[in-house]
Specification:
Elements (H helix, E strand, L loop, with lengths): L1 H25 L31 H21 L1 H4 L3 H28 L14 H5 L4 H6 L2 H29 L3 H27 L6
Helix pairs in contact: 2-4, 2-7, 7-8
């Protein structure tokens, strides 16, 4: 009986140690903001700011917040290949994936260079961030196909891009690093062009008002 109790106690200790190790790993200050499969089943409006994000340097807030924003756009765009009925939208989605993954890599590199070891500073209160997430539902988008998908995708991506443009324009004025200012200008130009094209498609494909 004593041996049985001892075995159970040792098992609990091993489990507790594993959980503690996992918790410590998740609490690393500069851990990457990987998007889990669970995250894609949540409404984006439920996302929350990192602890004390508003107290971090503006440029760090921008890098972490825009990285998260880009990751959401990439997730949305990846759905288009198997769900959209328009080749033009599939092509734009591939471009969005390529462009924004490249920008994510660049922002991560700057973060490591300028703010090594700093805690995450993703701030939902940055201009455009909260607005671009309202009403976003990855589960609904993933469950749709054809015309329904294209209508929902265009509505969501136009709103998402509009939020990025607002955040990037703010960074042009507030960022301390010229590299961020330059990247923000490119984001504004590219995403405004894509917004204009997506609005045209809504009319051409009779999706206006969806």
């Amino acid at each position: 009986m004593k041996n049985h109790i001892l075995a159970i106690s040792l098992g609990c200790l091993v489990c507790s140690t594993a959980v503690l190790a996992q918790d410590k790993a998740e609490m690393k200050p500069n851990a990457p903001m990987a998007m889990s499969s669970a995250t894609t089943h949540m409404d984006d409006s439920s996302m929350m700011s990192s602890k004390d994000a508003s107290k971090a340097p503006y440029d760090l807030q921008f890098l972490d917040t825009m990285e998260m924003h880009h990751q959401r756009a990439v997730e949305m765009a990846k759905l288009a290949e198997d769900r959209s009925e328009h080749a033009e939208l599939k092509a734009m989605s591939k471009k969005i994936i390529s462009d924004q993954q490249g920008e994510i890599s660049q922002m991560k590199s700057w973060r490591e260079q300028w703010y090594p070891g700093k805690s995450q500073a993703m701030n939902m209160d940055m201009p455009g961030m909260m607005d671009s997430m309202k009403g976003m539902s990855m589960p609904k988008l993933a469950a749709s196909k054809g015309k329904e998908f294209d209508s929902m995708f265009l509505d969501m991506m136009i709103k998402h891009h509009s939020g990025a443009v607002k955040m990037a324009k703010s960074a042009e004025a507030k960022a301390q690093h010229p590299e961020i200012k330059d990247l923000s200008k490119k984001m504004v130009s590219a995403q405004q062009d894509e917004i204009a094209q997506m609005k045209k498609w809504k009319v051409q494909w009779k999706l206006a008002g969806s």
